[in-house]
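Help!! Second protein's tokens look totally different from the first
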Amino acid sequence: MSERDVFPDFIRALPMVDSPLASLRGWMLQTGQALAMFYEIPDGVDVPEHAHGAQWGVVLEGSIDFTIGGETRTYGRGDAYFVPDDVAHSAVIHPGYVGIDVFADADRYRPREED
């Protein structure tokens, strides 16, 4: 693990997330009840409004402008957020972001196919 790596090797050894966000690099831990995603977004990204099951997350590095149910708030290092079930939300994720999200929808993401 280098100084720049936030996640240790055993997390980076988890299956990689197949995400529609091109700049997202993430690893997933999936059970029958929930999905945890450990991820980095080095270049930043705008996430359009959408809804799904409940989501909880924590910011490890960087910041995110998160609009949840019409209310926008900026979250930074150490801040946690919660999106209730079926509540519309969107985000502006700033460059250098690192976080952990846990989704109540265990099938929210799939593992990336090996190349």
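Here's the second one for comparison:
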Amino acid sequence: MAKDGMFYAPKSVKKEVVCGEGEFTIAAVALDHGHIYGMVGGLVEAGATLKWVYDPDPLKVEAFRKQFPQAQIAQSEEQVFADDEVKLVASAAITSERAPLGMRVLASGKDYFTDKAPFTTLDQLSRAREEVKRTGKKYMVYYSERLHVESAIYAGQLIDEGAIGKVVQVMGTGPHRLNAPARPDWFFRHEQYGGILCDIGSHQIEQFLTFASCTDAEVAFSRVHNFNHPQYPELEDFGEASLIGNNGASGYFRVDWFTPDGLSTWGDGRTVILGTDGYIELRKYIDVGRESQGDQVYLVNHEGEYHYGVKGQVGYPFFGDLIRDCLARTENAMTQEHAFKAAEICLIAQHKAMSERVIWSGGAK
């Protein structure tokens, strides 16, 4: 069981290869976050051909090639951009640098696949919208807590089949283990990581929009705080937000860096989805005290009570769909507007929380 979510990179048991060797060539540029392993791994499992890797840090490149030895070492990102065989560049750069890199990727005529959060400012988002419109290229985002979690994918299928009727509320928890000694310096600099609602809150907001079938949402309330890490004054170790979707559905989520050491995985992520005809609960990574294996799905509706262990049963269709989308210029994996809207709401929630933040000292204002 993974103890650190920074290197969460599940491998699919149920694989679907959607293209042949050399038909969809990709590169990995900027290896600042361990999510790059899951991003590239998912694409390779679906048939992508990994040709290049580039990062200015040779140690990161060496570690990457231990898992993906087929990747050639590029001497610069320009070398990658100049290769006409490369159709998509995957990246997990420092959060504040993801948008500038994306602009360079799109300008080179390639699609871009970035780790979440894709932006740290609304200005970056605005520029990305303009560049996508200008180039016609994709700016896709790795919202891994839905896209790379079989229980979340299965929940979406149940909802689409009408198992719980119309979704009226989504509640999510996204606890993470901090493991501060293993984190890079930029992780503790607010300008670079963007804040907790911008960072891990992005997963929760994207899931709300998906499960509740919303195309937009208002941030009714948001809050961030540093409760227990004064040695990292720019870290927010707790965040929460309440959303109201444009179809009337409501959402609430809490994210934090308080996973206790006694938990065998990096975070007890859970989601509860309430519908007009039932509800679904996801225990994504562990079912505490009962089952160490994650991807446990609980369904209650008018027909009865059900429990499904879906680990290894569903697969991760996003990656194959993304490859097909890039080749055919379709939007089946995720629409561009959905990817951008989730990011936009994250940034609004983060800004609202910061502007209304109350600084507490010893419990008093």
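Reply: Different proteins will give different token patterns, so don't panic. The radius of gyration is 20 Å.
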